């Protein structure tokens, strides 16, 4: 055992304390050295933006150089068993226990089970894409790292912003739901433990309990990944027993007359609900962020991700069906649906068991979320899109404490004010957007390799991808404008088929996965694009207004901070002797920076720039 005099050394790295707060730790880049250098950087914003749009990272950089910026490695302590239970823990929570009742009551009726089928199929398609990337690039950044490699720095930033938004808002939503079920367990009115104020509707119920729960979950996650896994395993096992009880008891007390009418709000209501309950499947991307702490990513990640998600999809559908048969959809309680449903069939005692199970489920969601979301944030900070202070990994715990604090404090502020329905719609848009980008990135990875793919093949790939995306958006728009029509589909669906067939028949795959790959490429990724965009189009206009406002804020931050920080990291000022050393490295073929790859082939750069829809006049020489 270490003596007390030795303890401080556990927080030291190379003579520097982990707990440091200087300006250099937050803004070490050249552009932020002084106000003069920052003004100079702002004058170069357009030039730097073009450079960032054209730049791409690579597998080696993400796996090596960026990881070193955390100063300490995360501990490899997880296997497929841990990831499978992390899958259960991260997914089964607020979505099924809260959103099921909310959407069955408002939009889908008994057809909520079809909503879970539709969103589940779309989620499984995204799981395939995530699994291939996580096996090939096993780093903490998840989809941010994957898109940075395939679609470039700017696309990765848009994803990073949405990932942070998804993490913060999703965590806040679960914390709010936790309070609702805790209230039900105490047999009190739904909002009795919240503080009522005169603020705007949707923001007028303050929730201090949600803040406390977030703080406890984050503290556990910061102490140890291994210990968090053990707690999650036990809690998820107990929650699984409760879920089996809900399904069995629900079917025993089923009244099939409650299924009539089955689709009271029509097909539009089913898909509108599907877009919202997609949130219930959203936690699986946290598993991909744990690849850096997985002992054998090529084996453990496919088993953990695909295995857990397949079982979860079946469980969700059975639970939704059980709820719909126990209680008429018009009578379902929106805040604590299952507890109230059992009370309505005379099983008042079961109400407390279900509430306890729901609390355990949502607690594990917060635990696993605190792990996965902090790892997203860590890798985003490694790329300097947010201050690199958040990338630091603690030398003793092997966990990113700073990143965990960022997500937790931000989530706590939002959870304190915002209601669940406000959070869920915004979260679904962000989640579906990121998953759409992931499917596009997978097609780019399979069909485009720098220095290998002929220019004409890249041009064809871009054209076919545009057809797939445009036709999918057209299908979604037509559905929203005319749900009962069919003529528009006669145009959009054949166009989608044309774009996908074009990739399949005219473009050879340029890359073969080393360990595990998505089957039926390009069909499954293309279908993932179509389903995600379709579900996005099923959301209300208010969700897109909020999403648009958040996107504008993200872009403003990027133009003022992000583009300059990442440009400085990619193009650091060099001393004469450093330039000579770089030349020696290039002669030996050892240069591994993404900019080095890009600068050797201006013709490839031009094609990549076209991929991002840049005009010809924006494609200049790389400095």
From TrEMBL:
Source organism, top-level taxon: Eukaryota
Q: Which GO terms describe its biological process?
A: amino acid transport
The primary site where this protein sits is membrane
Secreted listed as a keyword: no
Region feature Disordered, mapped onto this chain? 575-594
Keyword vocabulary terms for this entry: Amino-acid transport, Membrane, Transmembrane, Transmembrane helix, Transport
Q: Where in the cell is it found?
A: Membrane
**Pfam hit, one:** AA_permease_C
Which sequence ranges are marked TM in the entry?
A: 77-99, 111-133, 154-178, 205-224, 231-253, 265-284, 305-329, 349-372, 401-420, 426-448, 460-480, 486-507, 519-537, 543-567
Which molecular-function annotation in GO is an example for this chain? L-lysine transmembrane transporter activity
Q: Which GO terms describe its cellular component?
A: plasma membrane
The Cationic amino acid transporter C-terminal domain covers 516-565
Q: How does it sit in the membrane?
A: Multi-pass membrane protein
Has the keyword Cell inner membrane been applied to this entry? no
Question: What family is it from?
Answer: Belongs to the amino acid-polyamine-organocation (APC) superfamily. Cationic amino acid transporter (CAT) (TC 2.A.3.3) family.
What protein name is recorded for this chain? Cationic amino acid transporter C-terminal domain-containing protein
What phylogenetic lineage does the species belong to? Eukaryota, Viridiplantae, Streptophyta, Embryophyta, Tracheophyta
